[in-house]
Fold this protein.
Amino acid sequence: MRSRLSPDRGDRIGRRRLRAALGLLLTYLALAGAVPAQKPPPGNWESSKLGIRLALPRGWQLAQETPDGRSAKFLPRVGEGQVALLGLPLEPDAEGRAPDLEALSRAAVRSLKESIKKFKLVSQRDLEVAGRPAREIFYRGKVSDKKVRWVQTLFVHRDWQIFVVYVAPEEAYLGNVPEYDQIVRSIRLIP
C-alpha cells in the first residue's frame, strides 16, 4: 500500500514526532532529577556525599544506587556475586570521640554474627584504601540455606564509615575476587 504522504512530508512528520518524544523524555528526566549536573567518566562511580570515586572493572555495571549516594550495588560481567558499597555515619563513643578502626571492625563483626546464619570469621587483615587505614574481613555463612562467602573492606573518610563488600556463593566466590580487589584499589578521595 502506498503512503498518501510524499516521502519528504513523511520525513518531516517523523522528525517532529522524534523531537517531541525526546523533548518529553528530557523533561521527564529533568523533573525526576535523573540528569546529574556532572557525571563521572564512563566506568566510574562517584559519591559526592561520601567523597569517593571508584573505577569499575571492564564489563561491570551499576545495578542499584540510592538517590543520596550512600550506597550502590555493582554486578560483574560474568559469574555470580556482587559488590556493594555502603556509607554509614560515624557515631561518637560515650566520651564524644569518633571510634577508631579497631572498634568499628569489632562492631561490624558483632553485627555480622547476629545477622548471618552459621557465621564464621575466616580472617582479618589491615591495608590501606586511598591512603587511609582500612580493615579487610573475610567470613562465610548461610543465606537461604546456601553457603556464601564474603570479603568486606572497611575504612573511614570524612564522617563516614565506608564498607565495600563482595559476596558470592561458596562455589563461585573465587571467580571475581581479583576484580573486587581492583575496585578497592581504584578508590580515590574527592573534594
